[in-house]
Amino acid sequence: MVNNKFAIYNVDTNRKASAKQIYAVARHFAKLQSKTDAEAFKLTKVFGAIMMKFNAEHCETPITHGDIAKFFELEKVPAKFVEQITSKAPKASTKPKASAKTSTKSEAPKATKASTKPKETPKPKASEQSVEDFEATLQGLRKRINVAEMSIELIEDKVEAHDKKLASMDAKFDILMAFLETNPDA
Questions:
Q1: Which of 15, 146, 145 is nearest to 69 (CA)?
Q2: Rounded-to-integer distance, Cα 109 and Cα 132, Å
Q3: How far is the C-alpha of 159 from the C-alpha of 120, rounded, in Å?
Q4: Residue 81 · residue 63 · CB < 8 Å
Q5: What is the dihedral of CA 169, 173, 176, 179, to 10 degrees?
Q6: What's the chain look like in SS3?
Q7: Stated pTM of the model
Q8: Residue 42 pLDDT more than 80?
């Protein structure tokens, strides 16, 4: 029997990693990134989700057993995973991350990005629009409705044609069955 610690080295390195292995690496990354066990527990879920999302997005080149072995040897979490944590969930981990050097760099640009979104002017309400803008919006809606109505009519025509074909097939099967029942030797 092989020792479990070294069992990973006996498996083909190009074989796709399992979800358990990915979450084991997530736990390893969480321990590297956090200072307390409670924080590591929370980060394990986050790193696991990030790594599973990464694996799903890169389905042509998924995380393999070889990658898992390399991840376990790392002493620092790869930047591509740390960046996703700071951009996805800054509220949940602002206090612990404020002391980390890498996260303070990534939090500052995030604050500027967040401040640019509210500066975009939202579309004014219909009652606040000028007559020309309102008419343009109304024309756009009318075009969408016309396209939707035309597509509904096309679908209804196809359904009707399909129903006619089915009725024709049923009639032909009935004739065939009647012939076979009356003349079974033929």
A1: 15
A2: 39
A3: 45
A4: no
A5: -130
A6: CCCHHHHHHHCCCCCECCHHHHHHHHHHHHHHHCCCHHHHHHHHHHHHHHHHHHHHHCCCCCCEHHHHHHHHHCCCCCHHHHHHHHHHCCCCCHHHHHCCHHHHHHHHHHHHHHHHHHHCCCCCCHHHCCHHHHHHHHHHHHHHHHHHHHHHHHHHHHHHHHHHHHHHHHHHHHHHHHHHHHCCCC
A7: 0.43
A8: yes
Burial of 27 from C-beta contacts in 10 A (0-12 / 13-18 / 19+)? middle
With a CB cutoff of 8 Å and minimum separation 6, the contacts of 50 are 26, 81, 84, 85, 88
Q: What per-residue confidence (pLDDT) applies to 93? A: 44
Token pair, residue 14, equals 């190009």
Residues composing the chain = 186
Each residue's pLDDT tens digit, 111-140: 444 455 555 667 777 777 788 888 888 888
Instruction: Give the phi and the psi of residue 64 in degrees, each rounded to 5.
Output: -110, 175
Contact 97, 107 (CB under 8 A): yes
Q: How far apart are CA 167 and CA 83, in angstroms?
A: 61
